[in-house]
Write a structure and sequence with these properties.
Layout (H helix, E strand, L loop, with lengths): L1 H11 L7 E5 L4 H12 L3 E6 L2 H14 L4 E5 L5 H10 L1
Parallel strand pairs: 1-2, 2-3
C-alpha cells in the first residue's frame, strides 16, 4: 500500500488528502479508475461526464465509503454552460 501511495505522489507531485479533484470521463474506463484512486487517496472527487445516471451510481458508491466525498455533474463539456456548472460545483 505504501508503495502505491508513493506512486500517486510521484505522478501528481502532491498529496491528495483534503484536495478537490475534477475528473472528466468519470463514468467508466480510465476516468472512473482515476476518480476511484484519487478518492482512495483522500481527495474529494467531482465526477463529470455526459450521463447523470452512471455518475450518480459511482458517487453513491464512493460516498458510502466516505460520506460527502463525491459529487456528480453531468453535461457536455464542449459547452460553456456545462463548464461553468462544473467549475461552480468544484
Amino acid at each position: 500500500m505504501s508503495q502505491n501511495r508513493d506512486t500517486v505522489r510521484n505522478i501528481t507531485g502532491m498529496e491528495l488528502a483534503g484536495k478537490i479533484t475534477v475528473v472528466t470521463g468519470a463514468s467508466g474506463g480510465i476516468g472512473m479508475a482515476l476518480a476511484e484512486r484519487f478518492h482512495k487517496e483522500g481527495a474529494t472527487v467531482v465526477l463529470a461526464d455526459r450521463d447523470q445516471a452512471p455518475l450518480d451510481a459511482i458517487a453513491q458508491r464512493l460516498n458510502a465509503l466516505r460520506p460527502n466525498s463525491a459529487l456528480a455533474v453531468a453535461g457536455d463539456l464542449g459547452t460553456e454552460s456545462a463548464n461553468a456548472m462544473l467549475i461552480s460545483t468544484a
